Structures are given as structure tokens and as C-alpha cells.
Please model this.
Amino acid sequence: MATDIKMPQLSDTMSSGKILIWKKKEGDAVSRGDILAEVETDKANLEIESFFNGTLLKILTPANSSAKVGEVIAVIGAAGESVSVGSAPAASAPAATPAPKAAAPTPSPSTPAPVIPSAPLSVVTGSDRVKASPLAKRVAEQLHVNLSSVQGSGPNGRIIRRDVEAAAGGSTAPEYQAAPAQQYHAAPAPVAPPISTPAFSTPTEPIQPGAGTYTTLSKMRETIARRMQESVNTSPHFYCTASINMGEALRLREVLKELPEYKGISVNHLVIKAAAYALKREPKVNAAMKNGQIYQPAQINIGIITAIPDGLLIPVLKEVDSMTLKDVVFEARATIERARAGRPSSTDLSGGTFSISNMGMFDVENFTAIINPGQGGILAVSAVQKQPIVHNGQIVVGSIMKVTVSVDHRIIDGVMSATFLKHFKEALETPALLMA
Model:
């Protein structure tokens, strides 16, 4: 019996995806675990894996076309089987759905264009695809840069925005260089008029010479802006801060980093394990508000906020409370490396129940973080700093780290937040608890 293959939700923020390239063609044999296609989402390029054995009977969403999450994109069945797709009629002609939208004065911001414009060089040519970030592709289209001739400086040779700007030369590159990341607005494109959306409006006053520059938000930045605004508007944030003496934790790290199985262990790995320890003892901080009810997940899945050239990704470690510290070190390093290389797995970016934002490596003394929508809390971790402290009645130099937990005050109150921080502090100040 034929099976519909639907566009999966590959991240918590994904609503649609664009097929970049099909790894299998119609008529090819497919085994469970084979990669069917590569998909561009709002966060990264991800691969769709087959969970079925059979033959790829029909591709309903061709390369360079988009499909919403849950929409049928292909059919797998027995060789020679006739294709009869229950939910496929709406998806069987991917070009038909966007046609009415193309005639409208302003395209819908939630529906990506199904076809890449033909003026710039196509990113996909047969099976040879140029690796480039979504923002780099957009800038290349506007500056008419041939991506196949650009040398990428990103992870694994991935082309990022600055590579395109450099290839375009000095005359046009400044338009994309001067705006700070937090002040982006929609940009007037050199060829086509700017596209405005209700959430991100185009400046109405003409740009005066020397007044600054505007840069179009990348797809990822649009998602970040929308999600953060959603979080602030819907979740009343409540904050608790604690100071932690990291002396014992740092000594443990010095001992463990000499062991091969703990190679690369960092303070962040201790923080992740301590957060899981605290969440297990105060599970109400691991909850979230969903559909007007308190949702209590069965697992403790911690998202690690990770900076990449075009924005942020949140790779997720699953069931951290059941991991050993050694497992946390290995899994966190592997997951973050995949995210930074632009090659996260299909499960890396979904399922988080709590998040950690660590800015200690930037020598930040203290900050607060915005809750990731769909979760109830996030922990902001600052730098470990040398400070005078009182120990056994005497003033000594201590290694102090400040952390602030932000929680959704609709479901998590001050006592729950304080209890979480109490256990978190306990785990780091008595780090033998992290080895259990």
C-alpha cells in the first residue's frame, strides 16, 4: 500500500520548507534510513529521512518548490503500484496554489515563493549544489553575484553574507555592512521594490545620504524577531538571580579535562548537567503554557542557544537528566558542531523543554534572556569572575558566576524559580552531585 510522505516539522519554529534537492528520483528503491531530500527551513538546511521501505513512486513537490508542514511531498510504495494519494490532490500541483497569490499586490509573508528568480545564477544545478546561507543567497540575488564562483568562509566552506559582499566588490557591499544586528529593517532592493509585512515595515521617509543603511532581514532573523516579540507579548516574564561560587566546579573541570573521555569539557557542560539536576527536583520550571493549560513534559530536553553567522540556533539535548556528565560533554559538542556547520540532524532543533543562554565567554557580568516560545523558562549564564567573598569569617578571592532564570509567571512563581536556583547552585558548589 502506498504511503504519503509529508513535509515534517524539523524545528520548533518551522511552518514550511523548501525542497533544495531530491536525493532520490522517481522509480528509485528506498530503504528505511535513506535520505530522501534536503530542505531549507527558517533555521538551517536539513535532510528528510525515509521511515519506510519501497519505491519512490511520485514526487509531488519538485526541487526549488515549497510545502507547508504536513503537506504531502512524495509517495512511497511497491514497485509498479498505482499512485492514489489520499491527501495529495491539494499538493499534487505545487505551482497551482501560489498562482492566485502571485496576482495579489503584496505576497503573503507566511508563504515562501515557490520558484527562485531566474535573473541571478541558480543555486541548484543538477546534483551539485552550492552551500550558502539563506541570507547569502538573498544578497547574491540582489547584487547579481554568481555563487558558484564564490569561495565560502563559513563552516565546511559554506558561503555566508560577507563572502558575497566581498565578491561583489566595494561599490555595493557597504549597503549590507553598517547596520547593527538589532536595528535591521526591510531594505529597498536595487532591482525590485521592497516587500513589507505587518510585522516589519519599510521606512516611509526617503533615505538621506549619510543617514545610515538598511539591510533586509534574513529568513532566520525574521523568525527570531517574530518569536521573541511573541514571547514578550504573551508570557509575563519573572526573573530570579543567584551568585554561585564556582571554585569547586572549576577544580573538577581541571581534573576531568585531562581524561580522554572528557576531552573538551567546559563550564557550559557543567551548567547543562546542573540545570538538568535542578529541573528534575523542581519539574514545574520545566513546564509550559499550551492551549490554555499547563503542559508538563515527560522529558527534560535542554536547548543550548548557539550563535551562528546569520543568527541563532537552539540545538536540543534530549533526556539530559538520564545522561552522565561524560555523555553530556560528548552529545553537546557533537550537536553544537552540527548546528554551527549548518548540518543539524532532523531531531536536533526540536523538542526543547528548557533553554540555556551562556554569554560567559564574552565576559558578560549579568543579563536576562527571553523565554523561547513553547517553553516555561530559560537560564542566562554570565562569566565566572574573581571577586572578594567571605569564607569562614575571612575575606578571600572567589570565582563567582551570576545566573538569572526567566520564567513564564502565568504558571511558574517565585518560589518555584528560587527552588530551581537553589538546586542548580547546590549542584555546582558541590559538583560531586554532577557525577552521580
About this structure: The first helix runs from residue 98 to 103. Residues 87-128, 170-202 have pLDDT under 50 and may be disordered. The radius of gyration is 24 Å. Helices lie at 98-103, 134-143, 161-168, 219-234, 247-256, 267-281, 325-340, 414-429.
